[in-house]
Amino acid sequence: MGHSHDHSHAHPEVKGKNLLISIGLNILITIAQIIGGFLSGSLSLLSDALHNLSDVISLIISYVANRLSKKDASLNKTFGFKRAEIIAAFVNAATLIIVAVLLMVEAVKRFQEPQEIASGLVIWLALLAIAGNGFSVLIIKKDSKANMNMRSAYLHLITDMMASVAVLVGGLLMKYYELYWVDSVLTFAIGVYLIVVGYDLLKSATHVLMLFTPSDIALEDIAKGICKLEEVDNVHHIHIWQLNDKEIHLEAHVDFNKDISISEFDKILSKIEEVTFHDFGITHINIQPEFGKCDTKDLIVQD
């Protein structure tokens, strides 16, 4: 069986220091907003605090994943800790959706009976959140080009800054026009946004954990690409899955049109790797060579 993963990928080094600074800032913002939310009676401030908390979790995951990714694989952990961030993303997304629904239910109740809110506190804390998240966005921006995980954290921070701007606008409307129902409307809107973001993350994490074929890859196209090689007769029993957001694995049975030697197979394996990597972005392939074997030749074989 041929196994190939020769392609190396140069990924920029993510700076853990920048992540730690952002984590520290977001923890301070979250604590301030939670206390301020209870003191002012602002539900939108509490919902923004929840969003900030999700950012803290996201950044901590990024930091831990960054540290774990440097650990070598072992005899009992042959893939290392490459799936840690996927599992954490799944748990975080599920929790985020549940809490967002609870917030929306509370927002509907509050909308029916609006309560007076200490808008001054809401305004100052919203400004604090905008400044803190703005600084985090600036220091994470360069690292966001390193990998999908960091891009996700970067987008979280940008959208959280936008949510804080919405809370600030709501605080100003409450202060100068006494429109206290705005607080409930903003809370509901932030809740909807959190569900949309959470569902998208949950869906992506589920796809990876369930070993689904990446949505942008068509098995038929891969089979056709490999079958274009003159030495190949047939490709069947294909499995494609993502290990994490960087690695895509493929295993398949390949029928050759003549009885080849191991050295010939190694040369063809390199050709197959070129096809699968350059055309489909597959980083690891595992090929079972066959010649004249009587087995099922279906693309997908149910065991």
Per-chain topology:
Layout lengths: L1 E3 L11 H25 L2 H26 L15 H29 L6 H22 L7 H30 L3 H29 L9 H9 L4 E11 L5 E9 L5 H19 L3 E7 L13
Helix pairs in contact: 1-2, 1-4, 2-3, 2-5, 2-6, 3-6, 4-5, 5-6
Task: Record keyword descriptors for this entry.
single chain; 303 residues; alpha+beta; four-stranded mixed sheet; 4 strands; 62% helix; 10% strand
What does this structure look like?
The structure is a single chain. With 303 residues, the chain is an alpha+beta fold. The chain is built from eight helices and four strands. It has helices spanning 16-40, 43-68, 84-112, 119-140, 148-177, 181-209, 219-227, 262-280; strands at 2-4, 232-242, 248-256, 284-290. It has a four-stranded mixed beta sheet, with helices on one face. Helix 8 links the parallel strand 3 and strand 4. It is elongated, with a radius of gyration of 25 Å. It starts with a strand and ends in a 13-residue tail after the last strand.
Portion of residues in beta strands equals 5-15%
Give the beta-strand count: 4
Q: What's the N-to-C terminus distance?
A: 19 Å
Average pLDDT, rounded to a whole number, is: 85
Rg value: 25 Å
Order of helices and strands: EHHHHHHHEEHE
Strand order of the largest sheet: 1-4-3-2
For the biggest sheet, the summary is:
4 strands, mixed
- Helix/strand/pairing category: alpha+beta
How many alpha or pi helices?
Answer: 8
